[in-house]
Amino acid sequence: MSDTESTCSTPTSGFIKLPPIVTNQADREFLRILNDYIEAELRKVNPNDDEQRYIVYKTAFNKIIEHVTAYQPLLTTIKKEYEDTIEAIKKAQREATFLHGKLKAMASEPSTIRNYHKRGDELEERVNVVRKDNERLRIQLMELKLKRENREKQEKEITEPPKRELKKDHRLIPGLTLEETTDRELLQTKLHELDRQLKELTISFKTRYVPKTGKIQLKDSLDDKVAYRDMLLRQGQFYKAKRQRLKVALEAAQAYNREKPPHQTVGDTVMMALQYAALQARKQREIDQAAENQNQAEGGNQREGSGVGEGASTTNTFEDDDPNKEKEAEMMLEYIEKFNELFEDGKYEEAAIHAANSPKGILRTSATLAKFRDVKIRISGRTPLLMFCDALMPSAGSENAKPDARLSFECTECALYENRLDLLSHWVSQKRLTFTEEIGKIIERHCKCQIPCRCTAQAMAQFVYIKLKMYKEAIVCMLKQGRVRAGLDLIKQRCEFTRDDYVELLRLCPSVQLLHVLVEKDNKGNRCLPIGVVVMTVIGDNKFDMALPFIQEMQNKPSKDDPLTSAFHSAVLDDNETSINNWNELVHILQDQGYGETAMGLLAAITVMEVMKNALRTSQEEFQQTEPEEKTDK
Description:
Helix content: over 70%
Number of strands: 0
Largest sheet: none
Radius of gyration: 45 Å
Number of helices: 27
Strand content: under 5%
Structural class: mainly alpha
Order of helices and strands: HHHHHHHHHHHHHHHHHHHHHHHHHHH
């Protein structure tokens, strides 16, 4: 064994020993040149730019790999590991920046919606003020115009000389009697007949004789219309053939989805169906051609022959494949196959993004959503169904790209089931859904908060109802948010509420603030509901913890009409609907619950009200008794 062989292998260990890197003067010269190259390149680049310095060392490392042949596999592997690690770090930095921006945007959306609602209420108040000012200015302007007209009329009467009266013609209209000349309807009819006759004579005068160039223009116009008709016929035949191909492809795809045969894709099924349809069309064309030849041989009439020719041209149009349309169909089939491949491989997020961006929305359907719904796993805290819904919304920017009503409802239901109100709030505020009453109802029912709502579900439901102009439902959502004043203002602007509507509103959204607003007087001195009806409705729903403190607050609050009288006392005196039995029952309830002072105040108000009613009743009876006696004396 030579010295070289002894240095290359070791029999005892069994491993191949690599030769040293620097073995001769050429290697030392290469290392010196390489160091000079690195120093020269580093002086040219920015020392704080890691990317440029990395490129310099990467180039030097590549030169070492090319120079050293024995260490090429090892150095290549080391280089690949370094490059993969650096690429992974860069990718993580890019994703972290993107996710940080997305999280920041999603976190600011609820406050943005609240600010929008608050700003909307402020703008509505400003609009009301501007309308009142405009109405006041309009009235002032009308008054000034009227004064100016009166003044100009007076000046004109003073300055103008008396006009000369024209002599009236008292002759009768020819062809009419004296009675007919005074009949306004008959005169109007005659006027219309004369106008019609005048128009007919004018048209006849203009169209009876025309220049010779008009005939040429008419002929050219006729030729253009005939050419346009032929073009429309050809286009119609093309669209018929296209419709037939699409119908065959659709039926084949539906059959594939029902059966799902193994070892076959939906694209293969569609292509086989199209080939079979083309074969049948070719056979039908041969049959029609044979029938046409037979008719010509037997001396058939020209009309029948032209009919057969038209049928053959239609079949030819079916056979003429448009390359652009075929390419589009192939792209769609490839898109569907790619989606199925991603879905079957368990790459649900990529499949969801792929389906959401499908051309012409072929995969943005409820069937695709149902396919994601059938997968009962969670990936990174999200279900595949939520991934599809989240990927579907960014592509719904325009009005035509929005998901339909059913798909919008299913996406809303998915977000609520996953308790992702932040996502749903973003979809609703950006108008990415097709709003329906069902969407508003399901969002409203999702809220389990006590009044006022803290989860923003009622705010989203209110936004949906207002877009649908369902103002009564929107008012309920506003009251559940604690926005009682804004809700009552919306009632006055958009709705006409009856007493039963207010009672129903009180049952749905009971709150102390609503009780106060319902019994307050408006500018005309009217109340929405009598205080007895309000209190008995709340007590009937076993809301004692709300009704009794409300009565006590009203007892301690002075009346606007008389500061020496409590607001509760004034409201009781204005209540003519609640019976004495109901008031007495309320007094007993107050006493049982430990509100003795309030019960005494209510009893005093009831007593005063009863005395006033008895006095009024007595005076009416006395008046009715004295009136017949006065008539008898007379």
